[in-house]
Design a protein that fits this description.
Structural class: alpha+beta
Number of strands: 11
InterPro entries: BsaA
Shape: elongated
Keywords: Membrane, Transmembrane, Transmembrane helix
Organism: Candidatus Enterococcus ferrettii
Number of helices: 4
Transmembrane segments: 20-41
Number of domains: 2
Distance between the termini: 84 Å
Protein name: Alternate signal-mediated exported protein, CPF_0494 family
Radius of gyration: 33 Å
Largest sheet: 7 strands, mixed
Length: 284
Amino acid sequence: MNQKEKRQHLLRTFVRSKGLFACFSLVLSLLLVVGSTYAWITSADERVNRTDANQRRLSAIVEEDFDQVFHWSPGTTKEKNIRVRNTGEMPAIVRISLKEFFVGFETDVTDKHRTTDNGNGNLKVYGSPSATTIDVNKTETWAVGNTYEISANTHYKAAVALLDQTYSYKGTRTEPLPTIELNFEAGKLFDQENPPAASDKQYWYYEKGYFYYSEVLQPKEVTPNLLDSVSLSSAYVNQYKGALYRLTSEMDAHDLTKELISDWSLTNSDYAYTLYQSKLDHGN
């Protein structure tokens, strides 16, 4: 039997075997399904990519000029500039909220050299750390009872912790936060008690925990400073010496669509609502 005859014989045998033919058909079908699915996913990804390529990017960042303070004396002022830059490819409307974090440590309640209980004003020292120690860069560790390491055998224990306190401009702040004074850029911040004039441009307006920037921020543009510096008042009491304080800024950036009103929960009684109405695209 030559090679041609052998192939013909093998084919006749395969066709007569219904089991083998069924298996072959199933494998072929699976390959076709997998191939079709792969092609569909690839096609869908390509459509998404093409769509993204046609969209401009919305992006903004908070810029700060600030040198970390290690020894801050009452009555002194330190520079801290806060502003926003549009780093995207489309106009944006921006707002900022400020958050304060504070942790103070235990002080001696008795003087080591006298029998009075007036206290010597020094921070109470612990030789061993607590189970969870305070990390300056991780405010989630700033909790009462946690210790802050000064050296291997010197630790301070937290007695008071104020975390994620939303700064209220001209509002009530928990002690001792009022003695940490935020100095805003002169002539650039307004509120209900001190509204802007019609001629004022490029300013910030405080309302309900947020500082709203008055203008549409174009790509590459930067706002004027919201904050210029922070002062430690001379009224800051000795009880809180050695404490840790952090001021952070949280920024929202939005495109010019009318959804900004609902996304930021603005009502027609809010100044920000009136401020942005004429700047938004309402789809007319």
